[in-house]
């Protein structure tokens, strides 16, 4: 099935390189890039390269690849920003605050008393 919809979707266009972004991590299945409007310095978004709207739309076999990317990105962001923690969050559906309909995990560098919690 053709799941890549680069014409309609801003994150597909980032995956395709049509819209510039600051790449943090890339593998065959996923891309991580800096959020354009960061909650804290180093706020990163992790997306599957294929277009799925919601977390639960990712087929199980591909979900393990997406989690594998998160597993790499989370410690890499903590190391790069020298923070002890991250908030990792998915707004899964419009009513939860999902504004871009291409599944993405927020990886937000955190430290105590930064006031940036969800
Ligand atoms: P949501 O509210 O859908 O969970 O989060 C969407 C996120 O995407 C927001 O944090 C927003 O700043 C980010 N964002 C929206 N458009 C762009 C863009 O064109 N480039 C980048 N790097 N981030 C974007
Ligand atoms: Zn997309």
TrEMBL record:
Domain of life: Archaea
Coiled coil: none
Membrane-spanning intervals of the chain: none
Residues annotated as domain HIT: 10-117
Active-site residues from the entry: 104 (tele-amp-histidine intermediate)
One MF term in the entry's GO annotations: hydrolase activity
Protein name: HIT family hydrolase
Keywords from the named record: Hydrolase
Keyword Hydrolase included in the entry's annotation: yes
Residues of the full protein shown: 4 to 121 of 148
GO biological process assignments: nucleotide metabolic process
Motif segment (Histidine triad motif): 102-106
Keyword Hydrolase: yes
